[in-house]
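FW: tagging you since you asked about this chain on Friday. Here's the raw sequence from the shared folder, copied in full. Didn't touch anything.
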Amino acid sequence: MLNYILRRIAQSFVVLLMVMLLTFTLPYFQAHGILAPAYTVLGTHSTPRNIAIWASQNGMNHPYLVRFWNYISQVFFHFNLGESYKQNLSVWGIISLYVPRTIWLALSSLIFTVIIAIPLGIFQASRRNTVFDYAATGSAFILYAMPSFLLCMLVLDAFSFHWPHLPSSPPPGISPWAMFTDPAGFILPVACLTMLSVAAISRFMRGTVLEVMVQDYIRTARAKGCSNRRTLFRHAFRNALGPIVTILGLSIPGLLGGALIIESVFNYGGLGIQTVSAATNVDIPTVLGITLLVSILTLVGNLLADVTLGIVNPRIRIEGTSR
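HL: got it, structure written out here
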């Protein structure tokens, strides 16, 4: 198991280096190239001599590989995601207060998705081609095809404007614990993000369980006298859980991306609001810093999914060792 985890960590580290290389290189393609921040900082004083002095003071005159090594060092050893020259602040200083709010939103949605989608998919598979299965499948297709902003607007209109029982937005401020001190304002955002995820995961769970139920070992278990319930939960469920764990890990980017739109619709101060604001103001270091942070969170989520998959299905570890 330890070798399996180390291999996954090494693979995640390689992917992270590739993402860092991309985020480091992209500023070279903007107007004025890597010296674009000098024009922002110096303004009307951006003469060639002043730009050269500024570049020397900030290490912009070093070779590409030296600057990339310095970038890697500052990210790994100081968690410095860059500097926003427009706001004259570090990127981490700008977004650090908003990161926990987005993480809580995505994590809450993921927990509710697992609680709802997995039992729903299993129940659909056990009641295949019934009225409930058709109704759940149709609802899942509608939610899966619906744009997230449209779902948010419909839910907001239904449960906040026409039936004013729930707040239209979370409480103001940037406290990371607001979800626990005033949970009523988070019901609609979490519900919208959860519904979008449940629609996809439940369909995967249903299809995986149906695929497992036709395997030879399931027919053998039934021939030995196992009841349908015991066959479903004792034999089919664990073998069907492996692909779902992988899908849950791969859904983390979708959760974070969906949180961006949901934060904008519900006026929720998180990474989504900061990303939109930075993109509107052409604050490229902040946008790239947020991109790198989301990539790190995605890799951590996928790593946890791989480890969980190795625990659920030990054959993954064995096959990896034989290679």
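FW: Residues 284-312 form the longest helix (29 residues).
HL: agreed, and The chain has two domains: 20-90, 99-269.
FW: great, closing this out.
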